């Protein structure tokens, strides 16, 4: 009886805490993640260059990026460490953004967000989560 109860508890906890989506695939070294970076700061995406410049003053780690334009009204920045071969010139010292890419919030994936075009990573539903 106790073993059955612990199994039920384990299944319940797994259902609650396991991710709804799983990242699959691998890096194709396309460089898109280094060229098309959008920055969400205090819950909103940066849309103006002056906002990014202010952020660089507040947090010097953003000085490794430069603005390259806008997409859908959102400011796009590029990493200065991206080499011509699409490899990072400072891989050992890369930013946290680079280390966790492509982490996308579950609510965005559920709304249809995907990784960048050409990226070898993709998200799919966690089948074990939906079966429980």
Key attributes of the depicted protein:
132 residues, alpha+beta, single chain, two-stranded antiparallel sheet
Produce a short descriptive summary.
By secondary structure, the protein is α+β, with helices and mostly antiparallel strands.
How would you portray this structure in words?
This protein has one domain. 34% of the residues lie in helices and 20% in strands. Strands 1-6 form a two-stranded antiparallel ribbon. Strands 2-3 form a two-stranded antiparallel sheet. A two-stranded antiparallel ribbon has the order 4-5. The radius of gyration is 19 Å and the shape is elongated. It has six helices and six strands. The longest helix is centred in the first third of the chain and has 16 residues. The mean pLDDT is 81. A hairpin with a 2-residue loop joins β2 and β3. The protein has 132 residues and is an alpha+beta fold.
User: Low-confidence spans: pLDDT under 50, at least 5 residues?
Assistant: none
Number of H- or I-type helical stretches: 6
* Averaged pLDDT: 81
Portion in strands? 15-25%
Strand order of the largest sheet: 1-6
User: N-to-C terminal Cα separation, in Å?
Assistant: 21 Å
Number of strands: 6
| Secondary-structure element pattern, one letter each | HEHEEHEEHHEH
Quaternary structure: single chain
Total domains: 1
Tell me the Rg in angstroms: 19 Å
Shape: elongated
The secondary-structure class comes to alpha+beta
Largest sheet: 2 strands, antiparallel
- Report helical residue fraction: 25-40%
């Amino acid at each position: 009886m106790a073993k059955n109860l612990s199994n039920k508890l384990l299944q319940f906890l797994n259902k609650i805490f396991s991710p709804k989506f799983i990242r699959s695939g691998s890096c194709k070294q396309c460089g898109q993640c280094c060229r098309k970076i959008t920055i969400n700061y205090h819950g909103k995406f940066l849309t103006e260059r002056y906002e990014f410049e202010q952020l660089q003053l507040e947090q010097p780690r953003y000085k490794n990026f430069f603005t390259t334009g806008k997409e859908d009204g959102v400011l796009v920045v590029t990493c200065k460490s991206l080499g011509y071969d699409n490899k990072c010139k400072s891989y050992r010292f890369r930013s946290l953004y680079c280390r966790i890419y492509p982490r996308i919030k579950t609510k965005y994936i559920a709304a249809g967000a995907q990784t960048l075009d050409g990226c070898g990573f993709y998200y799919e539903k966690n089948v074990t989560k939906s079966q429980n």
